[in-house]
Specification:
The complex is a heterotrimer. Chain A is an all-alpha fold. Helix content of chain A is about 75%, strand content about 0%. Chain B has 4 helices and 4 strands, in the order H-H-E-H-E-E-H-E. The termini of chain B are far apart. Classes of the chains: A mainly alpha, B alpha+beta, C alpha+beta.
Chain lengths: ~325, ~120, ~425
């Protein structure tokens, strides 16, 4: 038998490659569906792979007034951190590679890294468009961080109030507990609200329209990414693909963790495994469709001031309301 | 308030509006596709048919031409050039703007419109 | 591209340039902006990035040739230029256009207005980051383009107007298709209105954005929908008699017809243009009902017409309402094959000045939609180019002095 530690180390590249491939496939589906909603045909499903291949072959241009080592280093940081995110998220209730006590908090921190790398890279590229984009990205980051934190905290609180204080911030424990079973009808409404909030936060994390002020093509010509080309741009492209999978899986692990085998729909074993995987892919598809595809074709772009208003105002309020409902539910149960 | 969103959802399950000419997706190699079409192995989607009296490529009947040069005079793009030796004209499609003034002015109707509009080519004539 | 300046208060302001090539601009123009944070504090723009020498080419061609050259001044509103030029020549030569031809000209012009405004609606949606609406409106636009092709032989350049009339008649069997098109747009008008005017995000982006007050509109000489959206009741179709408009019952479309107030913002400009789509469809219906029988052109034989035009001496002007505003053509004929002078003023030339009050104190995010809200058309506007480096700028004083000198010279020559 292999040492479990070695086994885990061996799993890391496998998960990374799987995450990238899955991300690119979902990007293809996302583009295709967006096109269909706009009555277009859209690119073939393998288009993201073609794009990636082309970007990898292109020249990597570094602007004259850029800080070149930061400029070149940040794409690597972004991709590495988003891949790291994958290592913390359990798929199909199999514990994550780096799973440990309090990993939900780590995820909160690691989530900031790719965006932060974009901001630093934008500032380092020395273009006015990238500078404006980087400023906007920072503001956007600050604003969607609040509802995200509230959502995570309310789930942890729910966990701790229902008896698992020690493992409140352990994603694997949350995932195994199936939070819907811990609450009554009022709490379920609250959780639903939190799920919607988390999906909308994902839109912000993905930088999709309506909250893509940092990249706004028609306003600041791609903003943060204005000066990036070739391999560096390809790395950012991969980052966004991986982030999509990671965030989708996070939502699934938090809110929709049940697998067909657990629900008793299919017997465990090989068929059960296949059913689990298919179910996971379907759940991921729904989350991606709601958080990215549909919203980005259905709404116009917000100004950065409106982004702040929407996240700090309405979304935070919704998250707080969700927290309140969950709290009321728990108190009713306790008393 | 949600008119557009409803419309988008409807369109998701409808056929795409795009006219799929000449192929649904860009082929790997255009030349290879054209070769395959030439051999009858592949098929191109047909373009949208043109209406009656379409202003397409102009056909020139050399035998009817009497060399009156009226078309040379009215052509805004100098696409019609007179050949003094033969007393005929030569018509350059690549300069033509398809206004059709030469067709109107020709006294013997040796210039006529055709339905042809796919005129991109490597060669100048 | 980026300059850092410190003003007297110690605030740092950046100057950022949008263009000449920028994703928000469909044609080259350079907007130089001073920025403080996200706020625009200074606006200037540079033109003449796409000078094509159209007028110069015109003075080397005969009027029949110029017609088609004029049509290529603008891709979108091509019929306005060919019509304005024809009007100018007709004015100079004293040619009268037959009644039926006037009606056909009106129909063609209104079809073009529909196509131009729907196209603009798509561009505006794209600038707002709402690409789905862009695809949707452009899908709507296909109908009118196909009808134009059915009527004139090509989708964009119609080439239907000629000096003294039109080149193609509208036959009885073509009328049902035209009616179908107008019905289609009258029907989709409601939907377009809902999509643009009721969408909360679009409304929040456009309401009170890029305000041009009535006074500013008058000072900057704004024309067309831009002026009407600010409450200036100005429409050449009503103010001046041309084509079949005097015989139709119509009035300028103002935004307060829908909202009951005029704010002069981007939202009002959207309303004005959408209303005009409906109005155009109604005008076409009226024209089809009222159209008299008769000749469609003053002189059918082109060589004869050319010979007649060769003898003309004098000046003529053509003025009409393009989708974007007033188009003005001036022609001077001196009894030669080609005119001595031909001057064109496209509506964007006036409307661009309105950018300055509109963009002041707005956010960077709103620059694209405000710039697009006047429906700018750069290559139509560019009539001059500055070649090489020049340090002298003609101010109003200089120009006044020069014109006084010129008048003196002419007076001396006349003595």
């Amino acid at each position: 038998m292999m040492d479990p530690l070695l086994m885990n180390v061996a799993m890391i590249p496998a998960v990374a490659v799987l995450g990238i491939i899955l991300g690119l496939i979902y990007k293809g589906i996302d583009r295709r569906l967006a096109a269909r909603m706009q009555a277009r045909i859209g690119p073939p499903l393998r288009q993201p792979f073609i794009d990636l291949k082309k970007l990898m072959m292109k020249e990597n241009i570094v602007p004259k007034n850029a800080v070149s080592w930061v400029f070149n280093f940040m794409p690597v940081v972004a991709l590495a951190s988003s891949l790291m995110l994958l290592m913390y998220i359990p798929f199909l209730q199999i514990p994550a590679i780096l799973a440990g006590s309090g990993d939900l908090i780590v995820i909160l921190y690691v989530l900031i890294f790719p965006s932060l790398a974009l901001v630093v890279g934008g500032f380092a590229s020395g273009s006015p468009y990238a500078t404006v984009g980087a400023q906007r990205e920072m503001v956007a980051m600050l604003s969607y961080e609040v509802p995200l934190a509230i959502t995570i905290v309310s789930i942890a609180w729910l966990m701790s109030m229902t008896g698992s204080i020690g493992t409140a911030f352990d994603l694997a424990a949350v995932s195994a507990a199936n939070i819907w079973s811990l609450v009554g009808p009022i709490g379920a409404v609250g959780l639903l609200l939190l799920l919607v909030v988390l999906i909308f936060v994902t839109t912000g994390e993905m930088g999709a329209i309506p909250v893509d002020a940092a990249e706004a093509e028609t306003e600041i010509a791609g903003g943060l990414l204005a000066e990036y080309s070739g391999r560096n741009l390809a790395l950012f492209y991969l980052t966004s693909a991986v982030k999509m999978v990671a965030l989708g899986s996070l939502i699934i692990a938090l809110f929709l963790p049940m697998t067909p085998v657990q629900l008793g729909l299919v017997q465990a074993g090989n068929t059960g495994m296949i059913a689990n995987v298919l179910c996971f892919l379907a759940k991921l598809f729904v989350v991606v469709f709601l958080s990215s595809t549909f919203i980005r074709v259905a709404v116009a772009r917000f100004r950065i001031t409106q982004v702040v208003k929407v996240y700090w105002g309405y979304t935070t309020l919704a998250a707080l309301l969700g927290l309140l409902l969950v709290g009321v539910d728990i108190l009713l149960k306790v008393s | 308030m949600i008119t557009m969103q409803k419309e988008l959802f409807r369109q998701l399950f409808k056929r795409a509006f795009t006219n799929q000419f000449p192929a649904k997706h860009a082929p790997k190699s255009v030349n290879a596709l054209l070769e395959a079409v030439g051999k009858g192995k592949a098929k191109l989607n047909p373009p949208v048919p043109v209406p009656e009296n379409f202003r397409g490529k102009i056909a020139y009947d050399k035998n009817k031409c009497i060399g009156c040069q009226l078309c040379v005079k009215v052509c805004p793009a100098n696409a019609v050039v007179f050949k003094p030796k033969e007393k005929k004209i030569s018509y350059h499609t690549f300069r033509c703007t398809f206004c059709g003034e030469c067709v109107n002015v020709c006294p013997v109707k040796c210039l006529t419109f055709t339905d042809e509009f796919l005129l991109a080519d490597y060669k100048k004539d | 591209m980026l300059e850092k300046k410190k003003d007297a208060d110690g605030d740092t302001s950046y100057s950022i340039s949008v263009g000449p090539v920028h994703p928000a601009l469909k044609e080259p123009v350079k907007l130089n902006m001073s920025i403080e944070g996200e706020k625009v504090t200074g606006v200037d723009f540079e033109l003449s990035q796409v000078h094509r020498g159209v007028e110069w080419m015109g003075t080397r061609r005969n009027p029949i040739q110029i017609m088609f050259l004029a049509e290529r001044i603008c891709g979108i509103c091509n019929i306005c230029h060919i019509m304005a030029f024809s009007k100018a020549v007709e004015n100079a030569a004293g040619i009268e256009v037959p009644a039926r031809a006037s009606y056909i000209r009106t129909i063609a012009a209104e079809l073009e207005r529909i196509h131009s405004h729907v196209l603009w609606a798509g561009v505006a949606a794209h600038e707002l980051g709402f690409d789905s609406v862009m695809h949707y409106t452009w899908k709507l636009r296909e109908n009118v383009l196909d009808t134009i092709e059915y009527l004139t032989g090509n989708r964009i350049t119609k080439a239907i107007v000629t000096i003294g009339g039109v080149r193609r008649d509208i036959h009885e069997k073509q009328v049902p298709r035209l009616k179908e098109t107008t019905d289609y747009y009258l029907k989709s008008f409601d939907k377009l209105g809902k999509i643009f005017l009721k969408d909360p995000v679009v409304k929040s982006r456009c309401r009170d954005t890029g305000i041009l007050t009535k006074k500013e509109a008058l000072v900057t000489c704004a024309v067309g929908p831009t002026a009407r959206a600010s409450g200036v009741r100005k429409d050449i179709r009503v103010d001046e008699t041309y084509a079949a408009y005097p015989e139709l019952d119509m009035k300028p479309m103002m935004p307060d017809m829908v909202t009951g107030e005029t704010r002069g913002d981007v939202y009002d400009r959207i309303i004005t243009r959408l209303l005009e789509v409906k109005q155009s469809a109604e005008i076409i219906n009226d024209c089809l009902n009222q159209m008299p029988e008769g000749k469609i052109v003053y002189e059918e034989k082109i060589p004869k017409l050319l010979a007649e035009l060769k003898g003309v001496e004098g000046e003529g002007t053509g003025r009409l309402e393009a989708p974007r505003g007033e188009v003005f053509h001036y022609v001077k004929m001196v009894g030669e094959d080609s005119p001595y002078a031909w001057k064109v003023r496209a509506p964007t030339y006036n409307n661009m000045l309105a950018w300055v009050p509109m963009l002041m104190n707005e956010q960077i995010a709103d620059i694209p939609i405000i710039a697009a809200s006047i429906d700018p058309c750069m290559s139509c506007t560019n009539r001059a180019v500055v070649a090489g480096k020049t340090s002298s700028i003609l101010t109003q004083e200089n120009l006044h002095r020069l014109s006084v000198e010129k008048t003196r010279k002419i007076r001396e020559a006349l003595k």
